[in-house]
Design a protein that fits this description.
Blueprint: H1 6-68, H2 76-97
Main location: membrane
Pfam families: TatA_B_E (PF02416)
Protein name: Sec-independent protein translocase protein TatB
């Protein structure tokens, strides 16, 4: 990432020791390492999201090709993409297919209300 050699790090450490002093230097090093760790995690999450988007775009392109081919005599790659898209669509719709938990079968919708306000 950065092309910093050993002697450059030693020079930075000496300057930091002179400027910050021996009391504040360890705290400053910890803060800088935390910031760098957070930046690496953020860069990793952005990279992962971009990879997912690229895979999704590839799947959509393959589905479009399959639709143009009439979903007949598809190459194994296209058939795999179509199957993957169908499975993911089913996974997304599965939570919504279940009936709501708040509705109990023994409670009728046309039952008279006992609340007499």
């Amino acid at each position: 990432m950065f092309d910093i050699g050993f002697w450059e790090l030693v020079l930075i450490a000496i300057i930091g020791l002179v400027v910050l002093g021996p009391e504040r230097l360890p705290v400053a090093i910890r803060n800088v390492s935390r910031w760098m760790g957070a930046a690496k995690r953020m860069a990793g999450s952005v990279r992962d999201e971009l990879e997912q988007e690229l895979k999704l775009k590839e799947l959509q392109d393959n589905l479009h090709k399959a639709e143009q081919a009439g979903m007949k005599d598809l190459s194994p790659e296209l058939q795999e993409s179509v199957d993957t898209l169908r499975q993911r669509a089913a996974d997304v719709q599965r939570p919504y297919a279940a009936s709501p938990a708040s509705h109990h079968p023994d409670e009728g919708d046309d039952a008279p209300s006992t609340d007499k306000r």
